[in-house]
Structures are given as structure tokens and as C-alpha cells.
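Let us work through a complete example step by step.
Step 1: write down the sequence.
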Amino acid sequence: MDLGLSGRWALVCAASKGLGRGCAEALVKEGAHVVITARGAEALEATAEALRSLNPAVQVRAVAGDIATPEGRAAALAACPQVDVLVNNAGGPPPGDFRDWDRTTWLAAIDANMLTPIELIKATVDGMAARGFGRVLNITSGAVKAPIDVLGLSNGARSGLTGFVAGLARQPQLAGRNVTLNNLLPGAFDTERLHKTLVAGASKNGLATEEFAQRRKQSIPAQRFGTAAEFGAICAMLCSAQAGYLTGQNILLDGGAYAGVF
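Step 2: predict the structure and record it as C-alpha cells.
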């Protein structure tokens, strides 16, 4: 199926590795030009080269910087001639015990995982509406639906973003102009982020990391962790021309781990 993304411009945040990179790869394969961001310049440029090799017909621009800062956002936006697709993503805050978190810790988590996506949305959606096409996809977390005790910072900040997007996505001046806003909620995917969570969980439960990881896999009906490539494929589908009637939704991608009906 042609997803109608050829020639579109996408801004993909935190795309040097993990789920962000998986999304960028899928969009490039569909013919979209991409601007990718991350804090680590070396890893980012290596990813950019890999993306160019996937599809020499598209432009890939790498902008190193912290997307959670005004300067980082301005540089990323300046590199993108127009943003047709926005994939909001940021490294999640560290796991831990809420008793150890002060106000500064909370504000950093909220700034990176709630306010930064909102700033990027504010900078792009009106242009999308004027052109009659726009896709905003926020990578949040399965913990929004099924909170994980050691990820309190993430649970709180991402839930705030979820509530904001639910209202904004239903504005007729956006939805009625073919601009959609959705959230993609990853469960356990084989990334560095997951490894850190596994280490924390293993320590809390007095287990070796590998044993804890195996138990986690066994708790997932799919009996495995997800891959960045399959996550990226779902991202591309949600950003496609065919997905114009899907907005304000939280799409859970977790191998069946969440046992609820809704």
C-alpha cells in the first residue's frame, strides 16, 4: 500500500536510536524527507548516513541538540522546510522512588515529556492546517494505561500530555483540516530504555537482570519484547494519508500485555 508520504517532510525527535530511529527508518522507506534530532552528534550522524542508504531519493538532515530546550527546538524546526509529520519523542525520565524526587526533578520530567511536545505541536499544527495535511504522533508509554511503579516521573508527565492531546485533537480547525494528533504507547521494546527499567526492577526485586527480563517476557502474551522496526511500521501507518479519520487516540502496542478491555 502506498501510504501517501512520498515527498512529505517529517521531524522525528530523539531519532538516533531506539523507537525514534525505527520511526525515521519507516518514514524514509515510504519516501518522506526527514529531519532527525538527538543530543549525541556522533550517533545522530551515523543514523543519518544509514537512513540515506535506505532511500537515496530522500533528504535526511541531522540536527544535534536538546529538543527540550528552546534553542534545540528552533534549530530542528529551522532545518525542516515544512513539517507535515511530527513525531514527538524524548528519552524518558529515570526510574526510581518518588520519595527521592524533588521539585527540580519533577519539572525536568514535565518539561521534556509534556511541555516540549506541546511547544512543537504549537509551532507546527497551524501550518499543517493551512496546507490541509498534518500528522502528529506522540511516542508516550504503555505506562499511561498501566502505570509502572518505578516510572512515576514518566507516568505523571506523559499522562499530562495525553490529556492535552485529547482536547486539541478534537478542535474542528485541526481535525476538519486533515490534521490528526495521536499517541503511540509502546510496551516493552528491546531498547536501552527498557534495559534501564529492567535493571531497576531486578534490583528492587533482588533478582539478576537476565532472570527478571525473562520473567517480564513470560508475562507478555507475545512472549517477547517488541522491535523498533515494527514500532516504526505502525508509526508510518498512523502518519499515512489513509489515517485521516483517526485522531485523538491512544494506540497501545505491547504484545497483548495490557489485560484491560478499554
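Step 3: interpret the result. The chain has a mean pLDDT of 95.
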